[in-house]
Amino acid sequence: MGCEKSRPRSSEEIIISAAEEGLGFQDINVHLIDSTFRKFSHMGRINQTQLKRISRQLRINIVDFGPHVKINEMFYNLRKEEGEYFLRDLLVIGIMLGKGSNADKASLLFQVFDETSEGVIEISRLKDQVFKTIFQHCVNSLGNLVTTQQCSESLELKNKKYLDELKQVEADGIKKICDGIIADKTSRVIDEAEFVRVMCEFEMGNLLSSFGFRTFFKEVFNTSPPKKVWSNPFGKKK
Description:
The protein is mainly alpha-helical.
């Protein structure tokens, strides 16, 4: 998991991590996660029957149990109109939560978004798709697994405030990542070897776990909090 273990976890991250563990990815090697999901997918999609087979083979949880009562909701929200899941979405979640080296995780993430196996990803897609997708799942999909069955109501409310703060700096945080990892500003593409190198070096590889990814955006919020729009209660109403 790289250097993330040396970073202190906030109370919000402690309860999110506990909620994430309900899915069961944390002890599974990322290569096994990747190969199993790909084995049961078809044309980049996974239906409910295939997902159940994956869950049995990997022994992950795709339905509510015990205090983990938002797993059903997470998978429901991941389903598309056709009732299927995009392989990309499920792999991002599995890789960010799974067990593996930073290099392995970065390599697999690159392959997730290099869907045509061209060996390169356009720089514009890093900002417009790659990091947006990772943000979506680390913050929205996984962050919202927290429930009052796992913590007090006050902590759940604190968690919602935490997630809201991260969402406020989504664009700024993604820009900082792209500015930090793209050395050649004239290049239009990045290959797998370079992507792996920069993702392992930037922020000491901490962006390759859901905890580290969220923590980076929290640091962006703390460093440059968005300006609050003050509403004058005495102003004239239209």
